[in-house]
Specification:
single chain, 121 residues, alpha/beta, 3-stranded parallel sheet, 3 helices, 3 strands, 39% helix
């Protein structure tokens, strides 16, 4: 099972970030266990590394920020914790941190990126 749902915004309601990103991941993990899923892939973000300094030469060994900048990085990091804690002999649970995910129907990042490109000379 691949879990890529999240509230992806620069700001917003704290409770909503926690409900969608943390509790949503807990619910997805529970559903996967109940369904007997063998592997759970949690799609996280490089934003969990964001602490206000540039992210340079980071790889999978770099720890998450102790004091993440923003509710999105904070809650995605907490969701990662839930996913990694769920790893077991019955269900392998892994985390990936792609830089950017978008596609048809994206209402978050792609519209902003498109608008920025349209302003270029």
């Amino acid at each position: 099972m691949i879990h890529a749902a999240a509230k992806v915004d620069d700001w917003g309601d704290r409770d909503e970030f926690f409900r969608v990103n943390v509790r949503g991941t807990e619910n997805a993990l529970s559903a996967a266990r109940t369904a007997g899923v063998g592997r759970f892939v949690h799609v996280s973000t490089e934003a969990v590394l964001a602490d206000g300094r540039p992210i340079v030469r980071a790889d999978e060994t770099r720890p998450r920020a102790r004091h993440p900048v923003g509710l999105y990085p904070l809650t995605k990091g907490l969701a990662e914790e839930r996913a990694l804690a769920a790893n077991s002999a019955e269900m392998e649970s892994i985390v990936v941190r792609p830089r950017f995910v978008w596609g048809a129907g994206d209402t978050t990042v792609l519209p902003k990126l498109s608008a920025a490109v349209r302003t270029l000379p």
